[in-house]
Protein backbone atom coordinates (compact mmCIF):
# COMPACT_ATOMS: atom_id res chain seq x y z
CA UNK A 1 0.00 0.00 0.00
CA UNK A 2 2.84 2.33 0.89
CA UNK A 3 4.48 1.65 -2.50
CA UNK A 4 1.24 2.50 -4.31
CA UNK A 5 0.97 5.81 -2.46
CA UNK A 6 4.58 6.68 -3.32
CA UNK A 7 4.00 5.88 -7.00
CA UNK A 8 0.84 7.98 -7.00
CA UNK A 9 2.70 10.90 -5.43
CA UNK A 10 5.46 10.60 -8.03
CA UNK A 11 2.90 10.55 -10.85
CA UNK A 12 1.09 13.61 -9.47
CA UNK A 13 4.41 15.41 -9.02
CA UNK A 14 5.38 14.63 -12.60
CA UNK A 15 2.06 15.95 -13.88
CA UNK A 16 2.39 19.15 -11.86
CA UNK A 17 5.98 19.65 -13.03
CA UNK A 18 4.97 19.02 -16.65
CA UNK A 19 2.07 21.46 -16.39
CA UNK A 20 4.33 24.11 -14.87
CA UNK A 21 6.90 23.53 -17.63
CA UNK A 22 4.23 24.08 -20.28
CA UNK A 23 2.41 27.01 -18.71
CA UNK A 24 5.63 28.88 -17.93
CA UNK A 25 6.48 28.71 -21.64
CA UNK A 26 9.75 26.86 -21.07
CA UNK A 27 9.19 24.32 -23.85
CA UNK A 28 10.74 25.70 -27.03
CA UNK A 29 8.13 25.45 -29.82
CA UNK A 30 10.32 27.10 -32.46
CA UNK A 31 10.80 25.15 -35.67
CA UNK A 32 14.54 25.81 -35.53
CA UNK A 33 14.87 23.51 -32.53
CA UNK A 34 14.12 19.80 -32.60
CA UNK A 35 11.81 18.13 -30.10
CA UNK A 36 13.28 16.53 -27.03
CA UNK A 37 13.97 12.89 -27.89
CA UNK A 38 11.26 11.49 -25.55
CA UNK A 39 8.74 13.99 -26.95
CA UNK A 40 9.61 13.08 -30.54
CA UNK A 41 9.34 9.34 -29.97
CA UNK A 42 6.09 9.71 -28.03
CA UNK A 43 4.56 11.76 -30.86
CA UNK A 44 5.80 9.32 -33.51
CA UNK A 45 4.41 6.35 -31.63
CA UNK A 46 1.08 8.09 -31.12
CA UNK A 47 0.96 9.00 -34.81
CA UNK A 48 1.63 5.44 -36.05
CA UNK A 49 -0.79 3.83 -33.64
CA UNK A 50 -3.51 6.35 -34.46
CA UNK A 51 -3.13 5.84 -38.22
CA UNK A 52 -3.17 2.06 -37.81
CA UNK A 53 -6.31 2.23 -35.68
CA UNK A 54 -8.27 4.64 -37.86
CA UNK A 55 -7.35 2.95 -41.15
CA UNK A 56 -7.99 -0.62 -40.00
CA UNK A 57 -11.44 -0.94 -41.61
CA UNK A 58 -10.64 0.69 -44.97
CA UNK A 59 -11.25 -1.57 -47.96
CA UNK A 60 -8.40 -1.29 -50.45
CA UNK A 61 -9.40 -1.33 -54.14
CA UNK A 62 -7.21 -2.81 -56.91
CA UNK A 63 -4.19 -0.52 -57.35
CA UNK A 64 -2.26 -2.09 -60.23
CA UNK A 65 -3.95 -0.32 -63.16
CA UNK A 66 -1.25 1.63 -65.08
CA UNK A 67 -3.73 4.42 -65.83
CA UNK A 68 -4.48 4.79 -62.11
CA UNK A 69 -0.77 4.91 -61.31
CA UNK A 70 -0.19 7.54 -64.01
CA UNK A 71 -3.01 9.68 -62.59
CA UNK A 72 -1.48 9.29 -59.14
CA UNK A 73 1.85 10.55 -60.43
CA UNK A 74 0.13 13.69 -61.74
CA UNK A 75 -1.38 14.39 -58.33
CA UNK A 76 1.89 13.53 -56.58
CA UNK A 77 3.73 16.00 -58.77
CA UNK A 78 1.15 18.74 -58.15
CA UNK A 79 0.56 18.26 -54.43
CA UNK A 80 3.21 16.10 -52.73
CA UNK A 81 6.69 16.57 -54.14
CA UNK A 82 6.91 20.16 -52.86
CA UNK A 83 7.16 18.93 -49.25
CA UNK A 84 8.30 15.32 -49.57
CA UNK A 85 10.62 15.45 -52.55
CA UNK A 86 11.03 12.50 -54.92
CA UNK A 87 13.88 10.32 -56.23
CA UNK A 88 16.65 12.77 -57.04
CA UNK A 89 14.44 15.80 -56.28
CA UNK A 90 14.69 17.82 -53.07
CA UNK A 91 11.69 19.31 -51.26
CA UNK A 92 11.03 23.02 -51.72
CA UNK A 93 13.03 25.29 -49.36
CA UNK A 94 10.00 26.12 -47.19
CA UNK A 95 9.48 22.42 -46.44
CA UNK A 96 13.02 22.06 -45.15
CA UNK A 97 12.07 24.38 -42.28
CA UNK A 98 9.11 22.30 -41.11
CA UNK A 99 9.29 20.46 -37.79
CA UNK A 100 8.78 17.58 -37.87
CA UNK A 101 10.23 17.35 -41.35
CA UNK A 102 8.00 15.70 -43.97
CA UNK A 103 8.58 11.98 -44.33
CA UNK A 104 10.59 10.42 -47.12
CA UNK A 105 7.76 8.77 -49.04
CA UNK A 106 10.01 6.11 -50.53
CA UNK A 107 10.33 4.76 -46.99
CA UNK A 108 6.65 5.35 -46.18
CA UNK A 109 5.60 3.44 -49.29
CA UNK A 110 7.62 0.46 -48.09
CA UNK A 111 6.55 0.54 -44.45
CA UNK A 112 2.93 1.74 -44.52
CA UNK A 113 -0.03 -0.23 -45.84
CA UNK A 114 -2.18 1.17 -48.68
CA UNK A 115 -5.02 1.76 -46.22
CA UNK A 116 -2.71 3.72 -43.90
CA UNK A 117 -1.42 5.82 -46.78
CA UNK A 118 -4.97 6.53 -47.98
CA UNK A 119 -6.18 7.56 -44.52
CA UNK A 120 -3.18 9.85 -43.99
CA UNK A 121 -3.54 11.60 -47.34
CA UNK A 122 -7.28 12.00 -46.89
CA UNK A 123 -7.34 13.19 -43.28
CA UNK A 124 -3.88 14.70 -42.72
CA UNK A 125 -1.94 14.73 -39.44
CA UNK A 126 -2.36 17.40 -36.76
CA UNK A 127 0.70 19.52 -35.89
CA UNK A 128 2.91 18.08 -38.63
CA UNK A 129 2.21 20.29 -41.64
CA UNK A 130 0.56 17.31 -43.39
CA UNK A 131 -2.74 18.69 -44.75
CA UNK A 132 -5.99 16.84 -45.18
CA UNK A 133 -6.85 16.42 -48.85
CA UNK A 134 -10.42 15.24 -48.25
CA UNK A 135 -11.95 18.50 -49.46
CA UNK A 136 -9.54 18.97 -52.36
CA UNK A 137 -9.35 15.50 -53.90
CA UNK A 138 -11.95 12.84 -54.53
CA UNK A 139 -11.40 9.41 -52.97
CA UNK A 140 -10.54 7.81 -56.31
CA UNK A 141 -7.85 10.45 -56.85
CA UNK A 142 -6.43 9.78 -53.39
CA UNK A 143 -6.33 6.07 -54.23
CA UNK A 144 -4.46 6.96 -57.40
CA UNK A 145 -1.81 8.67 -55.26
CA UNK A 146 -1.57 5.54 -53.11
CA UNK A 147 -1.25 3.43 -56.24
CA UNK A 148 1.63 5.61 -57.43
CA UNK A 149 3.31 5.65 -54.00
CA UNK A 150 3.46 1.85 -54.03
CA UNK A 151 5.64 2.11 -57.15
CA UNK A 152 7.78 5.01 -55.92
CA UNK A 153 10.56 2.88 -54.37
CA UNK A 154 11.19 1.22 -57.75
CA UNK A 155 12.20 4.40 -59.62
CA UNK A 156 15.68 5.74 -60.16
CA UNK A 157 16.00 9.54 -60.31
CA UNK A 158 16.25 9.34 -64.10
CA UNK A 159 13.14 7.14 -64.37
CA UNK A 160 11.17 9.46 -62.11
CA UNK A 161 12.12 12.55 -64.13
CA UNK A 162 11.03 10.80 -67.31
CA UNK A 163 7.66 9.89 -65.78
CA UNK A 164 7.17 13.36 -64.36
CA UNK A 165 7.72 14.98 -67.74
CA UNK A 166 4.75 13.04 -69.10
CA UNK A 167 2.41 13.57 -66.17
CA UNK A 168 -0.87 15.43 -66.54
CA UNK A 169 -3.34 16.44 -63.86
CA UNK A 170 -6.73 14.67 -63.82
CA UNK A 171 -9.82 15.95 -62.06
CA UNK A 172 -13.25 14.40 -61.54
CA UNK A 173 -16.64 15.93 -60.85
CA UNK A 174 -17.86 15.55 -57.25
CA UNK A 175 -20.68 13.11 -56.53
CA UNK A 176 -24.21 14.44 -56.83
CA UNK A 177 -26.53 14.43 -53.84
CA UNK A 178 -28.26 16.59 -51.25
CA UNK A 179 -26.03 19.04 -49.36
CA UNK A 180 -24.59 17.52 -46.16
CA UNK A 181 -24.45 19.94 -43.18
CA UNK A 182 -22.09 17.72 -41.17
CA UNK A 183 -19.65 17.53 -44.06
CA UNK A 184 -20.01 21.29 -44.39
CA UNK A 185 -19.00 21.73 -40.75
CA UNK A 186 -15.79 19.83 -41.50
CA UNK A 187 -15.25 21.77 -44.71
CA UNK A 188 -15.34 25.06 -42.78
CA UNK A 189 -12.15 24.09 -41.00
CA UNK A 190 -10.47 22.94 -44.20
CA UNK A 191 -11.03 26.32 -45.84
CA UNK A 192 -9.69 28.14 -42.75
CA UNK A 193 -12.99 29.94 -42.09
CA UNK A 194 -12.25 29.95 -38.35
CA UNK A 195 -9.19 32.15 -38.87
CA UNK A 196 -11.55 35.09 -39.44
CA UNK A 197 -14.94 34.06 -38.03
CA UNK A 198 -16.24 32.73 -34.73
CA UNK A 199 -18.46 29.80 -35.74
CA UNK A 200 -20.72 27.96 -33.29
CA UNK A 201 -19.76 24.31 -32.97
CA UNK A 202 -16.35 24.81 -34.61
CA UNK A 203 -13.15 25.26 -32.58
CA UNK A 204 -10.80 27.93 -33.89
CA UNK A 205 -8.51 30.79 -32.96
CA UNK A 206 -9.92 33.83 -31.20
CA UNK A 207 -9.32 36.14 -34.16
CA UNK A 208 -12.54 38.01 -35.00
CA UNK A 209 -11.39 39.62 -38.24
CA UNK A 210 -14.74 38.93 -39.88
CA UNK A 211 -18.21 38.97 -38.34
CA UNK A 212 -19.27 36.07 -36.10
CA UNK A 213 -21.48 33.53 -37.84
CA UNK A 214 -23.79 32.88 -34.91
CA UNK A 215 -27.40 33.01 -36.15
CA UNK A 216 -26.25 33.37 -39.76
CA UNK A 217 -29.14 31.09 -40.75
CA UNK A 218 -31.67 33.71 -39.61
CA UNK A 219 -30.06 36.76 -41.19
CA UNK A 220 -31.87 38.37 -44.08
CA UNK A 221 -28.83 39.39 -46.09
CA UNK A 222 -25.28 38.29 -46.90
CA UNK A 223 -22.62 40.97 -47.25
CA UNK A 224 -25.11 43.78 -46.94
CA UNK A 225 -27.42 43.40 -49.92
CA UNK A 226 -27.42 39.78 -51.11
CA UNK A 227 -30.52 37.84 -50.03
CA UNK A 228 -29.56 35.03 -47.66
CA UNK A 229 -30.64 31.95 -49.62
CA UNK A 230 -28.73 28.66 -49.98
CA UNK A 231 -28.01 29.43 -53.62
CA UNK A 232 -26.70 32.90 -52.82
CA UNK A 233 -24.60 31.57 -49.94
CA UNK A 234 -22.95 29.15 -52.36
CA UNK A 235 -22.37 32.03 -54.76
CA UNK A 236 -20.86 34.13 -51.94
CA UNK A 237 -18.59 31.36 -50.69
CA UNK A 238 -17.26 30.61 -54.16
CA UNK A 239 -16.70 34.16 -55.42
CA UNK A 240 -17.13 36.74 -52.65
CA UNK A 241 -15.37 39.56 -54.47
CA UNK A 242 -17.57 39.07 -57.52
CA UNK A 243 -20.54 39.72 -55.22
CA UNK A 244 -18.92 42.60 -53.35
CA UNK A 245 -15.65 43.98 -54.79
CA UNK A 246 -14.96 45.83 -51.52
CA UNK A 247 -15.09 42.78 -49.27
CA UNK A 248 -11.98 41.50 -47.51
CA UNK A 249 -13.34 37.96 -47.84
CA UNK A 250 -10.85 36.13 -50.08
CA UNK A 251 -11.61 33.71 -52.88
CA UNK A 252 -10.55 30.39 -51.31
CA UNK A 253 -11.26 28.26 -54.35
CA UNK A 254 -14.24 26.57 -52.68
CA UNK A 255 -15.71 23.89 -54.91
CA UNK A 256 -19.41 23.80 -55.77
CA UNK A 257 -19.82 20.62 -53.72
CA UNK A 258 -18.06 22.00 -50.65
CA UNK A 259 -19.84 25.36 -50.85
CA UNK A 260 -23.23 23.63 -50.93
CA UNK A 261 -22.35 21.60 -47.83
CA UNK A 262 -20.97 24.65 -45.99
CA UNK A 263 -24.11 26.63 -46.87
CA UNK A 264 -26.22 23.77 -45.51
CA UNK A 265 -24.34 23.88 -42.20
CA UNK A 266 -24.54 27.67 -41.95
CA UNK A 267 -28.30 27.43 -42.52
CA UNK A 268 -28.55 25.39 -39.29
CA UNK A 269 -27.06 28.22 -37.21
CA UNK A 270 -30.23 29.84 -35.97
Question: Can you put this structure into words, describing what you see?
Answer:
With 270 residues, this protein is mostly helical. The protein is built from 13 helices and two strands, in the order ααααααααααββααα. The protein has helices at residues 2-23, 37-54, 66-79, 81-84, 93-96, 105-111, 114-123, 139-151, 157-166, 181-190, 230-238, 240-243, 256-267; strands spanning 221-222, 226-227. It has a two-stranded antiparallel ribbon. Strand 1 (221-222) and strand 2 form a beta hairpin. Helix 6 (105-111) packs across helix 8 (139-151). It is globular. The model has no long low-confidence stretch (mean pLDDT 89).
**Rg over C-alpha atoms, rounded to the nearest angstrom:** 23 Å
Strand order of the main beta sheet, please?
1-2
Tally the helices: what do you get? 13
Helix content: 40-55%
| Range of strand content | under 5%
Query: How does the major sheet shape up?
Result: 2 strands, antiparallel
Structural class: mainly alpha
The pLDDT mean sits at: 89
How would you sum up the global shape?
globular
- Unreliably modeled segments: none
- Helix-strand sequence: HHHHHHHHHHEEHHH
Count the strands?
2
| Alpha-carbon distance between the two ends | 56 Å
Amino acid sequence: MRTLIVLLEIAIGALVAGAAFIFMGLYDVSATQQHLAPTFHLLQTGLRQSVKHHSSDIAVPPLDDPALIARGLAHFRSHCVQCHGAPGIAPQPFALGLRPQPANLVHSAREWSPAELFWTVKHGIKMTGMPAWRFRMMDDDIWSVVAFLRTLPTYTPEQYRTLEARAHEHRHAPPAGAPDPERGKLALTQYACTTCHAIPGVVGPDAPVGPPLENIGTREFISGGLANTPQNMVRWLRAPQAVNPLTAMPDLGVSEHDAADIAAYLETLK
